[in-house]
Amino acid sequence: MRAIAALLLMAAAPAFAQVAIDKPWARATAPGAKVAAGYMVVHNRAAVPDKLVGASSPAAARVETHVHINEGGVMKMREVPGYDIPAGGSFELKPGGAHLMFMDIRRPFKEGEKVPVRLKFEKAGEVDADFHVGRLSGGAPAAHHKH
Ligand SMILES: [Cu+2]
Question: Cα of 147 to ligand 1 centre, how many Å?
Answer without folding.
Answer: 31
